[in-house]
Write a structure and sequence with these properties.
This protein is an alpha/beta fold. The chain has nine helices and ten strands. Helix 5 links the parallel strand 6 and strand 7. Helix 3 runs parallel beside helix 4 and helix 8 runs parallel beside helix 9. 36% of the residues are buried.
Length: 286
């Protein structure tokens, strides 16, 4: 049974929406999803006294933009909605209230003025109770990876990583994609320095981890590459994805973090900001 039934597509009508729409349509077609499309406009009354007419113009502009993009969703069961207020809250609240199990949202590279835009995707990632697919928006360059031929699955090999593996299996099957796996261990020089582990012991630990990754990947029938790296998890994941041409990164994240695993949320956040690929984050329960 497919993990997702209905996705919420968050559209910013004040920017180029082509990348987000193209990916949302591809995902909906491949995974056979219903879609809700939402755009959030400002509450003008908070900024401009006696702004009722201005608020009406914002509403009408939003309705016109949604009418313009509606044909792009032909053939997909889609409903369109306009919300008013804080985008982070309105998007996550709508998804929870309307039983959406996936949010699809655009994300900019983290630099310049785009930092503010990217913060919406970042906040949604942290506050959402469902999974989040961030679609990388790269200026005027068309998104060429909506078919996700190569998927990189980041795992920490803990018990609940099986949930992320199942999701990767479903997405890979739908897109006829190959799945490679990556696990990042801590920097061995740091571990050795702190705990006084001798090099031979560290080498054995690395070999054991490599074997565990091989066994785990085989168990879930992933036939791609297996990468065991050391260092910063986010850096190693994004560098591997960029260097080897992966179109989608899949990883898990806890909403607030479990003891000993709080770093997962910050890793997902860092990958979101620095990856050139789309990123699908599976929300894991504590």
């Amino acid at each position: 049974m497919m993990t997702y039934k209905k996705a919420l597509v968050a559209i910013n009508i004040y920017e180029n929406t082509e990348h987000v729409i193209a990916s949302a349509v591809a995902v909906a077609q491949k995974l056979k999803l219903k879609l809700d499309v939402i755009t959030v406009i400002d509450n003008a009354a908070e900024f401009v006294p006696a702004a009722m007419d201005f608020q009406k113009s914002l509403q009408e502009n939003a309705r016109q933009k949604l009418r313009e993009i509606k044909p792009k969703f032909d053939g997909i069961s889609t409903e369109f909605h306009i919300a008013q207020g804080n985008p982070n809250y309105e998007i996550t609240h709508y998804a929870e209230e309307h039983d959406c199990d996936l949010i699809i949202i655009g994300s900019h590279a983290r630099h310049g003025l785009n930092l503010l835009l990217g913060s919406t995707a970042n906040s949604v990632l942290h506050k959402s109770k469902c999974d989040v697919l961030t679609v990388r928006i790269r200026g005027n360059v068309p998104n060429q990876v909506t078919h996700y031929n190569k998927i990189l699955l980041a795992t920490d090999l803990e018990d609940d990583s099986a949930e992320v593996a199942q999701l990767a299996q479903e997405v890979a099957h739908a897109f006829s994609a190959s799945v490679s796996t990556i696990c990042v261990e801590g920097d061995p020089t740091v571990v050795t320095g702190i705990y006084g582990i001798v090099p031979e012991v560290q080498t054995q630990l690395t070999e054991d981890m490599q074997q565990t990754l091989e066994t785990w990947s085989n168990k879930h029938q992933f036939k791609g590459q297996r990468y065991l790296q050391s260092g910063s998890a986010a850096d190693e994941i994004t560098e591997t994805a960029n260097s080897h041409g992966y179109g989608l990164i899949i990883m898990g994240s806890h909403q607030r973090g479990a003891f000993g695993r709080f770093f997962l949320g910050s890793t997902a956040n860092a990958v979101l900001h620095h990856a050139k690929q789309d990123v699908l984050v599976k929300r894991l329960k504590l």
